Amino acid sequence: MANVPAREVTEASAPAAPKDHSGGRRRGRSGAWGVGFAAPHALGLALFTLVPIGIALFMSLHNWPMIGSPSWIGLDNYQELLTDPTFRTALGNTFLFVVLYVPLNLVVSLGMAAWLSPRIRHRQIFRVIFFLPTVTPIVANAVVWRMLYQPGGAIDATAQSFFGIKMPDFLADPNWAMIAIVVMSVWQGFGYNMIVFSSALDSVPESQLEAASLDGANAWTAFWRIKLPLISPSLFFATTMTLITSFQVFIQPYIMTRGGPGDSTVTLVQFIYNQGFTFQKLGLASAAAWVLFVIILGVTAVQFLGQKKWVHYE
Amino acid sequence: MRVRTAAVAAAAVGALLLTGCSGGQSVGSSDTLTWSMWIGSSEDQKVWDGVGGTGAEASGKKVSLQGSPFNDYWTKISTQLGTDSAPCIVTMQSLRVNQFSDGLLPLDDLVKSTGFDSDAFDEGAMKALAVDGEQYAIPYDTGPLLLFYNKDAFGDAGVAAPAPGWTVDDFEAAATALKKKGKTALATTVEDIFLEALVFAHDGGQMVDDSGGITLDNAKNAEAVEWIAGLVKNATATRADGADASADDNAFINGTAATVVGGPWNSLDFKAKATFEVGVTTLPSPKGAQKTYAAGSGFGISKTCSDPEGAFAAITAMTSEKTLTSLAQDGRAFPARTAAQAAWYKNAGIDGAEETLNSALAIAVPLPGSADGDKLNQLLSQYGPQMVNGEKPAKDVLAEISSQLGK
After folding, report:
1. Is 0.95 exceeded by the ipTM?
2. Is the domain of A54 the same as that of A186?
3. Among B1, B239, B243, beta carbon nearest to A32
4. How far apart are the C-alpha atoms of A60 and A75, rounded to whole Å?
């Protein structure tokens, strides 16, 4: 990505230069270097992303057991997915997670970033503290949260001793399990977006805020009318990335509930994992992975189309 | 110009490929036999490294031990078997052997050609590692499922040490006495082997039948699970936790629960970690109808192993009387070789272990395995807690699991 502006700079710095022989050669040489520098990344992308995606598509059209030889079955795996109630449940659970998690994550991270304005003393310390959950391994976080949620764990014990209320067994109650996972995930994940928003808010020009306040805008109006539109590219970036990763949620439910109680927290990626590595049906797992891929691709495409309406690049 | 572009790109590709290659490892190279085993701790690692050493000596090759925790082991081995990265020597559990037999080499020819003495092994343990009459692994351990108990807690509650062959009524009486002292009697689990054994001991209900079919849908299973659920409701058993397979062991070791279902292979770990005196008895059964399952593990050879003869020589040494005696002396494994069993009793360090084991071994039947075993275990971990904790009727949950397995 860095080579693109560099090239623009070279070209812009010599706008008047006639298109002579030497200029062409220089551009040609830089083109060669450009390809050279881009090649490792492009190759890596091809080798480790595009090829596996292609192989997964190929596998999804086969009955592909873990041990033994695969056989061609066309679209049967996709048909099986459509009729499989477990897959539909996993799909529903994943959407439920996304719908709960993404807005909550954005609200919490934006709220925290707005609060952590340069006027807050020791804001760097707070930033580090809020960012800590994001850099600690998610498995360790999930194990700790399991303990917090358990009956007699920190949450239950606190509620009992202070209010005398017995809390539900969050992870074993089908109505609570997904909410418990969402809460843990927001705690784990908001730090990253908070840093992104925080730096975006810092770069909002002081002059515009000052102009707004001279025009009589209070802090609330300034935030909604000035700051939010100006950080909309960051909002767009954060929304897109958070949506993509939340569709891929796996570790939190896998560690905290194994998909239980019943199938109330089985997500798409866990469905894929179970089909592939526990039930040894690699073909069906690949088909489900492709469905997930298409969903993510579609949602991202919709976001890119929609961004014209609300994202301001200046 | 174009040539240069190509050259730079080619150099980059070359660099990429070189880094890629150096990351790979050669599995089963000509002077090494890879051996996969489940490893739970550094103590485990030390012991199994020693066992690998005897295999190396016998085969004249290096035996390289690949360890992973028990639950991950099955995921890993299922991705490896059938590919070139499969380890040569594969540790197999009796109830899972029919799930993986497609990737394993039948050992009968090697047994015959090397004059391996199968008769020196416990007959049930050998049979448990065979599928359709073909032997897929040589057992190193075997053992009936037993009930470990906290002697101190039983003593405090004024309950006499439970004798082998004790009944469900005896257990319930002990549970009531323990409850009065604020102790939970049983650490529950939904892990296949331990839940199946407890159910089978209770009323003979079988979740998997002898031919490997899943038979969850019978009244006896539901009845036995309801019995456990009753204990949970009554606060004489811990709530089952599907997401944490070691929750029951931990509850026993930290003193929360006074009993736990386990095999002889658990005894060393329990004794090492518990701060109380560990006792062992048989699973509670109705009077005069004592039942339990036996399960064991052994070493097999993957189909893709380039040197099955060398691997078999290693396995022969790894299951020799000397090796199994030394494993027994560590309290590690109750030997599948009858001649080495005396050493286990002598070193188990649990009073009454021999009497209990003899009583259990006399009536134990092999725990049947199913080709859908891992699927069953996964579904039990998801759905099992609901029935064991009494949130849903056992009958309904068992029907739900079997309908998912039936697909």
Report:
1. no
2. no
3. B1
4. 8
